[in-house]
Amino acid sequence: MKISLNWLKQYIDLNDLTTKDIVDKLTMSGLEVEDIVDENELYKNFIVAEVKSVSKHPNADKLSVCEVFDGKETLQVICGAPNVAPGQKVVFAPIGTLIPNGNFQIKKAKIRGVESNGMICAEDELLLSEDHSGIMVLNSTLQAGKPITEALNLNDVIFEIAVTPNRPDALSHVGVARDLSAIFNRDLHLPEIVLKESKIKANEIASVEIKDQKNCPRYSAKVVLNVQIKESPEWLKNRLAKIGLRPINNVVDVTNFILHELGQPLHAFDLDLLEGKKIIVKSTEQEKEFVTLDSKVRKLPQNTLMICDAKREVAIAGIMGGENSEINPSTKNILIESAYFNPSSIRRTSKALQLSTDSSYRFERGADPSITKYAAERAAQLISELAGGEVAEGIIDVYPKIIERKEISLRYSRVTKILGYEISKEKIHQILSRLGLALKDLDDNSLLVSVPTFRPDIEREIDLIEEIARINGYDNIPVVPKINITLEKKVDQQKFEDDVRNIISSFGFYEMINNPLESEWEAGLTGNPIFLANPQSAEMSCLRTSLLGGGLNSVKRNLNYGIRNMMLFEIGNVFERKSDLLINSFDDISEKQNLILILSGKEEEKTWYSDEKYFDFYSLKGYVNSFTQKISLDNLLTDLYYSSENEIYSYYFTKNFNNQLVGVGGKVKKDVLSKFDINQDVFVFEFDLSALKKITPDVKKYIEPLKFPKIIRDFALIFDRSVQYLDVKNFILERASKLLKKVELFDIFENETLGSNKKSMAFTLEYFDESRTLTEDEVEKDFNYLISEISKKFNAKLRG
Amino acid sequence: MLDEIINQIQNEFEKDINEADSLKKLEEIRIKYLARNGSVTLLFDKLKETSKEEKPILGKKLNELRNSVTEKFNSKKEELEKSETASKEFIDLTLPGKTVKLGSKHILTQTLEEIKQIFKSMGFSVFEGPELESDYYNFEALNFPADHPARDMQDTFFINEKFLLRTHTSPVQIRVMESMQPPVRAIMPGRVYRNEAINARSYCTFQQVEGLYVDTDVTFAELKGTLVSFAKQFYGSSLKYRFRPSFFPFTEPSAEMDITCFICNGKGCRICKNSGWLEILGCGMVDPNVFKYVNYDSEKYIGYAFGMGIERITLLKYGINDIRLFFENDLRFLKQF
Ligand SMILES: [Zn+2]
Q: A645 in a domain, yes or no?
């Protein structure tokens, strides 16, 4: 919201304060000033100048060489505007001037070989409008050399204030002035109304009926007859222009002026266009179309609150007037609407129509039901001053059920209790009264406060405490130097995931964070996705069902950046709907936390000490198993292997706890990768971290180091290629004596000398006993027995 | 005759030891003269064959020989050891070291961990809640009435009329208070979603840390003390700050905390929109209406709450100019932290 400092000064004396004082205090009391335009600063070097002569630029068709008189001397200036002509008074930027639009400085320059000593400005360059069709031509009576801050009244300071949604009262100049009156403890002056009314009674000319009293609790109307619609005077146009409004005509400008002065939205109807000179406020019974005064056709939903005349709709209540009844150049008689509408009704309609106006913005936040009469009278007074005409006597004011002021009691002790410091009673009284609140029934401990209707946000004691705190300044609240900590058990629900991050990153993985919003096909790859009702785009229309899509997109991006080797991981929530039925409770969806590991490219680069090596399935399996070991779940989880493909993987394995799947991963299929434009192998494993978190890990126990020597035996056997390592290992463990403690594969290879479809696997066997030294003989016996058993079982032969 | 042999061995040894130019050759010399079958050692066997009279004399001579040979051998060995490591076995210490895989946690995770650590040291627990939330927890129980413009403060992704993606971590406040009685002192980190255009300054999802303390004697002054302590630990003890009134439906009074812009040191720049201040968090005293929803007695209990965005804090702290970098997962970015 734009606020003009000069305008503010109409209601409060601020002349002794600097702009900085005012801005700082406003911000520090809750009306945050986001931007300041100080015109005196912005336009300080610009002056009025007179164009003495114009001739063609010798080297450029579209440029002119002008002689410009700046009040002291005549300067040569190059100008590109088509409308420049001798005798004009123009805005001139001398050398050194900073141009507001684009923030560049005017320098002495040669333009196509001809010297130029300044610039003649267009409106857009001064940020006065977006017009760049030609230079600004000023009133010819202005004197050359005069600063434009004086000549054009560019001596205001405009604040851009961010008003929070709880403060509808501050959405006007008087509202801001009221806060300033509390902050600086000085008087607020509201405009006095002096009305000269005619003998014709308003309620004999027009009438108002409210059919929907819930959504329109009050409707006041003033009638002004025989007005003359014309341009507004300079002062009014200037007021509106400063806050970014385009002047339209004297009547409409007055209604806009009052909206920004008092915060009360008004609407002026051409009374003669109101059928039956009657206003009826009611809600639509069915959907229908309506043309608003911006000539747009609006589709009104059922139950839209409308202003109607005897026959038809004439305005969307509180939002925008209709084309059929708007003020036009031949308007003679007007009806000024000053009403109070139900905030949520206006908000619903504004949302449904996707139409937000200065008026709807105020009504939906809560206007002041008590101000309607005053605002209508103020408008009538200004209109009669500016447009002639006579104000009909009296006001039509339909207000069936008066909205009363709230009364709240405030305990001084509660102020201290909440804020942690004491504010004097006198100060509390001063702040509340300056804010327009009435103090009643004071005693030593508390007071009763009557809250005006322009503060719908103040409903409880705590709201009063906030008013006191903010006006007295949050800076005055002390900063405690110490706190008390209770000794109850602390909880950290994120400890597990933090531990997991530490483990995985210590393996050399880099953590990713991907957008959980994905396209339907991405999310659909791994589950039954949940759709957003209002997505930004098709690419972000679903919640991810796994971390795979995000991970593969990150792989793709890195490949695009020329990075081919990666170890990535992510921890994040994934979402699925449990059925295709409507999502009606938390039981219809699942949200859990997953962990994904991604390997792609080279595990080892070619270096001076080693050859390059690519990631493969066993790299993945190694990391996965190291991880489960680190979180002490390795003995609790079982692996299942799948050498044929599924929808995602060419081959894969799973981790399971009590037959429940807790992780899956393997080599990602080529056709999946090609959807992500990935042209190299990717190995992925995804854990259900929420499930892992619930498993109680193995308790770590100390095992005494072995005191007796181990006996090691190696063997290599030639097997059929189809024999699996794990089957051999399990067979050995099953057949061996209790003295065999460990079986390790240390070599595996295939070549022609072994025979076709054959492979050699070499194992190391480790024998020991915790309580004695073994003899060579007993080991030899078991070892020989095992070799013969394996040979028989797997049809294997000892390697020669 | 033995004298002759001794002289001969002595001379031969002198020659050999002078010619020895490597530890390898020296080892050959040791074997030739001093090992169990070396010529010097073998001479001692001859001692048995000598007469009683000659034995002491010869013994003395042999000992002298062995001592002299051993001494020369040792000094040569020392000499060669010194020179060999220096010259013969040349080692290029400037070769690159072997690669160790580093890995790292995302910079946002690191920032969050730092924040968690500070609050945990002040006695806060850590709680979590779902990202897919109900309207009740995300808005209603936090005192956002239906049809209220306060809802416009947070552009929301809806699943349907009842469910949405949480727009802040504040719903976890409600869940925590529903699950326990005061005192409650907790932070609640997590991902939130906003239906905002994706550009350098905003993204459709980010992480927040919510904080909540409810007890019988909680004051705004303690809220200030706690957050100032946090900010000084996180940003540095020389930091300047201010608390500015603001509005959140679930706190009353509400505030935003600003710190001096560390890009321009408070002079005003593009990042701080020329104000000299950077907003780092929102906070306030828990609104009594919120206590109603969780059945806490708002006369007995007072609370404060705060919330901050991790991305924003991280952008500011590291001078990162584009929020999208956090979600690209470009390894050239990830490896910097
Ligand atoms: Zn700055």
A: yes
Among chain B residues, CA nearest to A532: B159
A162 lies in the same domain as A147: no
Interface A-B, measured as beta-carbon pairs within 8 A, has a size of 246
8 A C-beta contact, residue B168 and residue B208: yes
* Domain annotation covers residue A329: yes
Which pLDDT score, from 0 to 100, does residue A476 have?
Answer: 96
- Token readout for B60 is 């003395």
The whole model's pTM is what?
0.85
Bridge partners of residue A510, in order along the sequence: A568, B104
CA of B280 to the centre of ligand 1 (A): 13
A562 vs B: CB within 8 A: no
Find, among B280, B277, B305, the residue nearest to B291 by Cα: B305
CA dist., res. A120 & res. A97, Å (int): 12
Pick from B157, B224, B254: which is nearest to A479 by CB? B224
- Which residues of chain B are within 8 Å of residue A502 when distances are taken between CB atoms? 105
Do the Cβ atoms of A460 and B302 come within 8 Å? no
Query: Based on the domain organization, do A560 and A668 belong to the same domain?
Result: yes
Give the tens place of pLDDT for each residue, A755-774: 888 999 999 999 999 999 99
Question: Of the CATH numbers 3.20.20.370, 2.60.40.10, 3.30.930.10, 1.10.1040.10, which one belongs to the domain with range B107-334?
Answer: 3.30.930.10
Q: What is the pLDDT of residues B168-189, one digit of tens each?
A: 999 999 999 999 999 999 999 9
Number of domains in chain A: 6
Q: What are phi and psi of B82, to 5 degrees?
A: -60, -50
List of chain B residues whose C-beta atoms are within 8 Å of the C-beta of residue A515: 203-205, 327
Instruction: Find chain B residues with C-beta within 8 A of A557's C-beta.
Output: 328-330
Estimate to the nearest angstrom the gap between the alpha carbon of B193 and the chain centroid.
28
- Looking at CA atoms only, how far is residue B86 from chain A in angstroms? 23
* Together in a domain, A315 and A458: no
CB contact under 8 A, A478 and B224: yes
Residues A32 and A57 in one domain: no
Q: Is A540 on the interface with B (CB under 8 A)?
A: yes
Question: Does residue A80 form part of some domain?
Answer: yes
Residue A22: pLDDT band with limits 50, 70, 90: very high
- Say if residue A325 is in the same domain as residue A438: no
**More confident of the two residues A100 and A32:** A32
Does the beta-carbon distance from A591 to B329 stay under 8 Å?
A: no
pLDDT at B88 (0 to 100): 57
Q: Does A558 contact B at CB distance below 8 Å? A: yes
Range of the domain at A12: 2-40+157-183
Chain B segment 296-325 residues within 8 A of A by beta carbon are 302
Q: Is residue A455 located within the same domain as residue A516? A: no
Nearest-angstrom CA–CA distance, B128 and B120? 15
Check if the beta carbon of residue A65 is closer than 8 Å to that of residue A17.
no
Q: What is the pLDDT of residues A453-495, one digit of tens each?
A: 999 999 999 999 999 999 999 999 999 999 988 888 899 999 9
Q: Residue A505: which CATH number? A: 3.30.930.10
Read off the pLDDT of each residue in A438-443 and give the average, rounded to a whole number.
87
User: Running DSSP on this structure, what letter comes out for residue B158?
Assistant: B
Whether B130 and A510 lie within 8 Å, measured CB to CB? no
> What pLDDT, in 10s, does the model give residues B289-324?
999 999 999 999 999 999 999 999 898 888 888 999
Rounded to 5°, angle at Cα B232 from B226 and B238: 140
Phi, psi of A503 (to 5 degrees): -65, -50
Asked if the interface predicted TM-score (ipTM) of this complex is over 0.85, the answer is yes
In the reported structure, the alpha carbon of residue A86 is separated from the centroid of ligand 1 by a whole-number distance in angstroms of 46
Nearest to A258 by CA among A271, A245, A274, A277: A245
Residue B84 pLDDT > 70, yes or no? no
Whether residues A424 and A531 share a domain: the answer is no
* Nearest beta carbon to residue A463 from set B226, B246, B252: B252
Residue A699 predicted with pLDDT over 70: yes
A188 inside domain: no
B329 touches chain A (CB under 8 A): yes
Same-domain pairing of A206 and A168: no
Element (H, E) at B22: none
